[in-house]
Specification:
By secondary structure, this protein is α+β, with helices and mostly antiparallel strands. Helix content is 18%, strand content 38%. Strands 1, 2, 3, 4, 5, 6 and 7 form a seven-stranded mixed beta sheet that branches.
Length: 160
């Protein structure tokens, strides 16, 4: 038995067809000119590279949530150097109903420690040059978010 009572919805099911958007965070962590990416292990976009992140918990600041998610997902420590942008992820089903809706506050981080470790929410770990993302299977807008973060954090580094 999984420890969940029969009939208790899974976290994925709770996020489907929401009454309101979910608030989430992500963080583009840079080390030696490269950004940390991890493949998603769960829908949506399972198997695609993305930035570490997840839902904000009640009472948690956005910055604290971003650093917590980074540590939980890939066991990396960073410091936040700034806010990058927000991203809206809205998925509709075949009838046009909103299946998923997330508003993601994306931060820029500077690496402190940790190489990145796969886990339940993060598969393959990769440190990549920002310009290399166009050649990877990434979640929607990941390349654009990283490009914006690199422009702010790594001035003079042009995307390839």
């Amino acid at each position: 038995m999984s420890g969940k009572s029969m009939g208790e919805p899974t976290p994925e099911a709770v996020r489907l067809y929401p009454a309101y958007p979910f608030l989430a965070v992500s963080i583009a962590v840079f080390r030696a000119g490269e950004v940390l990416l991890a493949t998603r292990t769960r829908p949506p976009f399972a198997g695609d590279f993305s930035l570490p992140g997840g839902l904000v918990e009640a009472g948690e600041t956005l910055e604290t949530a971003a650093l917590r998610e980074l540590a939980e997902e890939v066991q990396v420590e960073a410091r936040i150097v700034g806010f990058n942008r927000h991203v809206e992820s809205i998925e509709r089903d075949e009838s046009g109903k909103i299946r998923r809706h997330f508003v993601i506050a994306s931060f820029i981080g500077e690496w402190i420690s940790g190489e990145g470790t796969p886990g339940p929410e993060a598969g393959r770990i990769l440190w990549a040059a920002p310009g290399a993302l166009a050649r990877l299977a990434c979640t929607p807008l990941t390349a654009e978010v990283v490009e914006g973060a690199a422009a702010k954090y790594l001035p003079g580094v042009a995307p390839r």
